[in-house]
Specification:
Blueprint: H1 2-14, E1 27-32, E2 60-68, E3 81-82, E4 90-96, H2 114-132, H3 148-158, E5 165-167, E6 170-171, E7 178-181, H4 184-187, H5 195-204, E8 221-224
Amino acid sequence: GIACLKLAKKLASKFRNDANEKGPVSLSMLLFDPVPGNAVWTGFPFTAAFSQNLSACHNLKRVLALYPYEPLPDIAMHAPTLLDYPATTNVEEDVTLGCHQGALIRTNVCPQNKYETASNLSFCRIYDFLDSEGVKIKLPPSIHLPSSKECLSICQAAFQATHASKRIAHDQTGRNRTVIRRNSEMSEKCRWLNKHHQQLEAKYGQEHCAPQQVERGSYQLDFEDGWKFCT
């Protein structure tokens, strides 16, 4: 993920263009739990310190950023980074099942554990994004490609769980957001597991909801704004 950020900034500096002009090179990025490895409070060792603000990358066309919700121990320094993007970029940030790279281990037609369940969702989301960007992948028979309907069933089942969780993050937007899973009391207001679940329900389920109709707190897996500090 951090390598993508460095690449985006490098391309933006090489192919300079105004925000309202179409440049010679455009870029789409898929970020899966981008983790700089910095301490949250001190920033040490300052990995990717100058790569997390992408607001000047005007040739950045589209971003899908996925964040597994389960936290790792603080000592691991695996807080993900939530980036600052150009206003012209089509950005979708979503929280998904799993824990860091444990959410992308292997798929299974009949998931045997939470890792395979999370991997099915992640793999399907990544495959669909790449396909929509014209990147065609031919998979060997040994790799199971989860269908959208399989993923809908996973989301519906996972939505029944109501335990709470919070994962601290580096938020470059100043909103001091954290990655959360809402508890049973807060989940009463939730309609979907996450944005992916909402999209699948709209396509294959019984619900039809336009994005502008989504209310705050509608997702069980979500980002929660924190304290805002004056600068």
